Amino acid sequence: MEYATYGKKELLREEVETLKELEEQLGEPLYRREERFGGVQKDSLKYYFSAEDGKVVRLNLGGWDVCDVTLVGHLKHLKNLGLAETDVSDLSPLKNLEELRELNIRETKVSDLTHLRGLMELKRLQLWDTDVSDVSPLRDLKGLEELTIKETKVSDLSPLEGLENLESVGVDYHIIGKNEDLLEKLKERGVNVWRA
User: Fold this and answer.
1) Three-class SS state of 17
2) Number of folded domains that form the chain
3) How far apart are CA 168 and CA 122, in angstroms?
4) Per-residue pLDDT, 174
5) Do the domain assignments include residue 37?
6) Where are the alpha helices (DSSP H) in the chain?
7) Burial (CB count within 10 angstroms: exposed 0-12, middle 13-18, buried 19+), residue 180
8) pLDDT tens digit sequence for 173-185
9) pTM above the 0.85 mark?
10) CATH (domain of 189)
11) If 0-12 CB within 10 Å is exposed, 13-18 middle and 19+ buried, where does residue 69 land?
12) CB contact at 8 A, 7 and 32
């Protein structure tokens, strides 16, 4: 395996190439110099990603001017991805992120969850303020533990019934009334159902 440097981090060469392309797309690096503290300039960088063993495992693009996540799909070892408050609408580039465990797509333009169907390691998903109306693609995500659905077009939560590892579901008031029986069953199973 070949390594290269990005900022001050040693990473797999192909991941550095992807980060540089992403940097070009965003118009700025995925790190910044630490602010002055007590009049002393720190000689360190603050990263918008984390790495383990030379592989990018966490990336937070929340709040950035991004709508295309094609390059993110090349970071095959991602475990945590933050896309909150972006213009992202298409999740298809994420379909091969088989190690992904946490995904935050709150306040995005996402409407279709189909491409999450094969992400069997996914444990936490935040869907606040999206255009999602159908959660049936989540029915096979047997490892899903936490889900927040708020300010969406979702009305039917029945696809969640078979998710045996579900521990917490946050929903807003308009979903509760339409799914009272199911939510009661989930509570009986020990799932923390809360109003988001």
Assistant:
1) helix
2) 1
3) 14
4) 87
5) no
6) 13-26, 173-176, 180-188
7) exposed
8) 889 989 999 999 9
9) yes
10) 3.80.10.10
11) buried
12) no
